[in-house]
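Note to self: user wants both folds in one dump. Writing first protein now.
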Amino acid sequence: MEKIYYKAPFGNLEILGDKSGIYTINFSDKFLNLKPKDENLTLCLDELDRYFKGKLRNFSVKLNLTGTKFEREIYQTLLKIPYGKTLSYKEVAEISGHKNAYRAVGNANAKNKIPIIVPCHRVVATNGLGGYFGGISVKKFLLNLEGAI
């Protein structure tokens, strides 16, 4: 597994992955200018650049989704939320076949190890934005970037 860093408009991202997929993206205070050796990580950096410039709407980088069966089902649902759109926690629960599990959807979102690419920022509360482990200002930034708010 390889570690690289990316300077996002709101701060640094630490990315871990290899040829089988991206495992985690962490918000980080640290930054090291490391050149990726792996093609998938190189693609990830390129796609993040294009995304933040408003030129990429769908990521193609390989992902290694982890978590419980339920969490992985939720992440697959999140990957289907179109760029610039939002769904409520309740809607994600219904679409994923877990009608009354909207609180569990929130918990799964909080455990999402690949934010931005697995777009948990596109899930909002019925009465507002809801939370975001990267901070509400980052969630607002991402939704504004996509034209969702």
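First done. Writing the second protein, which came from a different request thread.
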Amino acid sequence: MNGLTAFGQDPVWLVIVKAVLVFVFLVVLTLFNIWYERRLVARMQHRVGPNVNGPFGLLQSLADGVKLALKEDIIPKAADRVVFLVAPVLAVIPAFLTFAVIPFGPVVDVPFTDISTPLQLTDMPVAVLYILAIASIGIYGIVLGGWASGSTYPLLGGLRSSAQMISYEVAMGLALVGVFIYAGSMSTSEIVAAQERLWFGLILIPSFVMYVIAMVGETNRAPFDLPEAEGELVGGFHTEYSSLKFALFFLAEYINMATVSAVATTLFLGGWRAPWPLSLWEGANEGYWPFLWFLIKVIGFISLFVWLRGTLPRLRYDQFMNFGWKVLIPAGLAWIVAIAVIRMISLEGGFDRRWLLAAGAVLAVMLVLMLFLGGDDEDEVAPAEPEPFDAFAGGYPVPPLPGQTLSATSAARTGAETTSQSAEETH
């Protein structure tokens, strides 16, 4: 059985076993990712990190989960109770559902039976569109959680998150079009099969770069963690959540990290196929070995998430949105046109594929230059001299905003009040 014909043949008990295994895999991977992130960031900052609970501190995440479950569950008086309770569930369930079409390996023999089955729960002709559709539902959980809290800061965090995730989903979708064109399918298993000779991450470098940027923005991770910016939003959309409801939001974030990493592995790095030179071994892509290669690639992307968090500062929100709409999406549209032309000419036999790598490298360089050298229009205009600010115009002192200067009268009056206060404290 090859391709989509391999699916839909499993008995019901095997489908249930597969679903349970996927669920357990995601929960265990989340516990590992939390520990791994804390240990890796600690190593970057010359700290120790969790090392007490369990060997090497591996049970620290489990201890934190138990602690969260035993915490007092508080619901604000101003909250919409039903929506407040449903929102975390609406965020975490789509995170699990997206893994239904992720291929973990090829067709294998089930132990103690004579049944052969793919290491994948299911597949469909539009599996990648299914992933994008299910992932977009998770936005509702975050938006409704911020709105239902009945508080200003969670509402602002929810609005930020909705704008951010919608914007970068567009760029993510554009980055995947090139994969569809070259694979000739939207089925995840067939896309992996199309990368038997060469990974799409190598021949579609701009698509790969755009997807990696978009997946970080899509998951609200640093340096794009603006919906949770504690500097101005306290904690963002989950400020009013506690106990298990907060744990569900936390779980959804880490499963989404694993999801976008698994999608990147499947669409750009050959999925479960062994990397070169391991692929020279005949048994590298047979049996249960492919699951190991898949897991290593996913952990590599998660390491990228951790590295970005420990390295880059948070962007300003307007810079982040400008980059998504004015750089990433136009570059994605231009690259799709280039891919379509290149693919058409190459299929007709009149085009050398080495030009594809050259075009991809040039577009990647242009994307980087647009990111780092493109200045705002505001920077080209000479800033006007700020007018003096009267701090006592309303009858009581008001601190100046950034860029404002106190008038001479206000400065003198402020200095006099400071001197009199110091004298009173001395006496």
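Dump finished. Worth passing along: Residues 72-376 form one domain.
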